[in-house]
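Task: complex structure prediction.
Instruction: return structure tokens for all chains below.
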Amino acid sequence: MSLSKFKRNYYGYLFIAPFVIGFLIFGLYPVYNTLALSFTDTTLMTKNANFVGLKNFERLFADNVFINAVKNTWIIWILNFIPQVGIAMLLSIWFTNTRLKIKGVGVWRALFFLPNLLVPASVAALFFAFFSFYGPVNQFMVRFGLLPEAMHYLQSVPVTRGLVVFIQWWMWFGQTVIIVMAGMTSIPVTLYEAAMVDGATSSQMFRRITLPLLKPILIYVFVTSLVGGMQMFDIPFLLTDGRGSPNASIQTNNILMYMKFASSKGHIGAASSVGVLIFIMTSICALGIFYFLRDRDNDEPKRSWFSKKSTER
Amino acid sequence: MKRLSYILSVLVALSMLLAACGSPAVQAPPADAPAADAPAAELEGTLNVWAFTNEIRTMAIAFEGRHPKVDVVYTMIPMTNGEYQTKVKAAAGTADSPDVVALEAAFVKEWVESDLLANLNDLLPLTEELKTFPSVVEVGSYDGVAKGFSYQATPGAFFYRRSIAKECLGTDDPAEVQAMVADLDKFVETAAKIKSCGTGDYFTVGTPGEMLNPFLANREQPWIVDGDLVIDPMVEEYVKFAKLMRDNGYESQATQWSEGWFAGMNDTLKDANGTPKKVFSYFLPTWGLPYVLIPNSKSDTTDTGGDWAMINGPMAYQWGGTWVGVLDGSPNSELAKEFVKFVALDEENLTNWATGVYTNEYLKAIDPETPDDQAQAGGDFVSSQVVVEKITSSFDNSDLAKFLGGQNSYAAFAQAAPSVNGALLTGSDDAIQRALNDPLASYLNGDITEAEMYAQWLDAVRNEFPDLVIPEPPVK
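Output:
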């Protein structure tokens, strides 16, 4: 290797060094440390910690508390993700439709994004106050004859889960609208024009043009939402008692992890084992999404040239 | 993919190896505190104090008044869902660690039993001088080492509405009402009378959650004995009692510490139809009177002051209390110790604290930036029997006595305080009791059976205490 070549390489390393160092310290090390802690019985309140092998993991599967938390997380995430993407797609199609020509798209987009700027703590406190036993929702429902008598909304499993799903959806669909719209506007108008000349219907254009070209964006939305969903914490934590009540129905993975960390002595070893399993589960699912939604052009060379073009970009 | 799994497996093996060889550095062992026996002529420095309410801020300002060169940096973190406990645990032993921490009864033992608090045995002679209630010292000590002291003693009481007693029970005389609620059977009989009285809009209590402490205080054994979880028969009694109160409509179904619960104190509670409801009684300890009941007895349109009376109720108990301790390894340990001494073991401070000397004017003269609601109204029950004896008579015609229709609450608490048993508190109480709330609420609602409730509760406890031996549920 000549000196000049080395120098060129050296500058390259220099330029990527900030990211690599940042990633090693703030990305890789915490993951590694979590893994290391998960094999110990470390607590915050005692100075000695012992290696306990896989005992923390065994304990997680000894009863169904952990499985229940995983189940809750998936239920809440899926119920929130489907309408989130569905409504984001619908709004994006309307907003980008050249025939509808909706006015003030920027204003609408900003309005839909606004809930995302609210602090989760105040959103949760607001909903807690609205739906408490002596709160305004009960007053309204009973006085207008919609309910025979006041009920404990936040002690009902479907209502509480529904509230978490709604809040998550309401806070995040604006964000998805922005991303999906950006993806849709980046699709060349000429494609639609050509399709229209050929006599394609709206639904044909959506399925044959929009969806294939939007796939990279949808994968991105899918994966980021999955990662965020598996780590769902603030709203379910703050809405009820911080333990996922009622009936542990909104106790998510992260709440369980936090409970182990926060309980009595602060069992961070046991808490880390939950973190490790969430990490593994999320990684497998994210890789699965990439695998199943990968571009199959190479396998099926007869596919239309649109999607091929998208991979070349 | 192959390479990735190879890297991952190496990483796993490596971390297991490292974890096996040496425990990961979670906490550096604290440096030995400098030993300075002679108190400095004038204290100076900056002291970081963390607490879960603003009460101790008042004393911090008074401390600055006595030692003008000292600057107390006060941090308040609420503990509604355990935020404070988590925050202190995470900070202890790090560079952000406070010097002095306030510890509530529910989790003080956890800290006293740990290695994280400094030894405060030097201050023990003062407790004899001030005749601090023995249970207060006992709770703050472990293995003969005192690690925390409290300015309060917290025997509990039963506060009831005189007007409702007169209307439903025929008398508002404390001795006669006490006879009607002297034990649980009589309490239930009285609750039935209150329920059927008038238009049927009276609840006996706001929530059975208030009664958890009386039941727990009358257990034979603490939650944990030799690494085993103990479910005392009183716990089952409590569950049965709470169910009975709910099923018969003797309680308002408001959540403790929620708007509805407070609304009952000032007669602004309305059900969903807008029908006014009233709450007959509240189980509250010493601090509940000045901090909870009196501040919430007034609304814009109503004022229940003067309509209350105080008795022992069906069971003797204690509830809550705030201890202060010094974190081991604090660089300001001498100053911190001096602060603990001032807060919990200083006759002048305790007297000022209990008799309402710390007014806004008093505090603003020391620190002009004092918030307007920082004043400490008189009436908190202090831990020193010497101070209690001196000031009890001063409450005879106080605002406090007027609130209770002429009763001197201080004298009543002084009688109850020596019977408090500090031995039932353990470091795990908080987490065990919190874990019971959700299953119990579901059970009271009728969503799950009693057996399911116990199973869920014990599962939750098992998940928070990896080393605890959990017994079979009492109901299957």
